[in-house]
Amino acid sequence: MDLFKTRKYSRKKQYLISVLLITITAVLCFISINIIGYRAVALILLLVVSVNAILFDIYPVLLSSILSALIWNFFFIPPTFNLHIGTAEDALMFLMYFVIASINAVLTYKIREVERKERDEAEKEKSIKLYNTLLNSLSHELRTPIATIIGAIDTIKDPQTNISENNKNELYTEIEIASFRLNQQVENILSMSRLEAGFIKPKIDWCDLNELVFAAIKDNADDASQHNIKFLANEQLPLFRIDNGLIQQILYNLIHNAIQHTPKNTTISIELDYNETHCIISIFDNGKGFPDNEIDNVFNKFYRLTRTSTGGTGLGLSIVKGFTEAMNGKVYLENLLQGGAKFRIEIPCEFSLNIHIENE
Q1: How far apart are CA 77 and CA 71, in angstroms?
Q2: Residue 205: in which H helix or E strand, if any?
């Protein structure tokens, strides 16, 4: 583990810090030499060399091991203040210290290098897996609306096909729906890219949450033909000072996710509330809920439930979580006892009961 990211320090800074650690430790040991004895100093200095090996690259660590050996010899091994060693036992101890310190430095560095390579390999495998997952998802989620648009346009433009105005209008409707779905997938991909790059900065303004919910329901109307969306506007809600665009995207993705992953005729309910510091959005259904062993993973990028035949890129809920956290909010998910799942969004914000407030 790269503690405090010290390996990213410049080589000069690493040399300086490693030498300072050895020097400061030696001074403290010198002050307390009568208490701990000079042999214990060797263990303390060896410990500092080990810490340097965890923190820094190999050459600063080797320097600190050599320096610590010389300091121990010069200041602590009798006779002090020279490099002469009085007894064969102390000479052997000094030699063993130097060898152990050097080996410890090299081995610790090598272990860290192996761990780093293993982490890099794991990250590479993870990236490849995510890349393949994204390609597989996009191959269906983007290709289907594109194929619909191309097929409908070819039919309309084909001079040998005699279609009525009614049929032509139906094809135009199919093109419109497919275009909207294609645009939504592209929006999700762009939103995730912005989240990854850290470019999401909320644009705070006064808004009516009821209106945003109605807009999100309307955007999902074509996909919700076989579901029941239940929402009763809360007329007692104040205006909230939040990011309209992020909230609407959160609402759209939550409603769309519920439509995709619940059986036909499922009821999807939306409720709005607030407390002294937060606005609260709750979206729940009476479907089958989430498998208990997968509920902690549903907000991960590209994650899709293992036993689902529905499509999707697996980005919707991760965008919900990212946008919510961009506004310093939190998203909660739980399975309901009576069946189904409930998402609860809590976002800190200002609010006002004056419905005539003008945008700032």
Answers
A1: 9
A2: strand 205-207
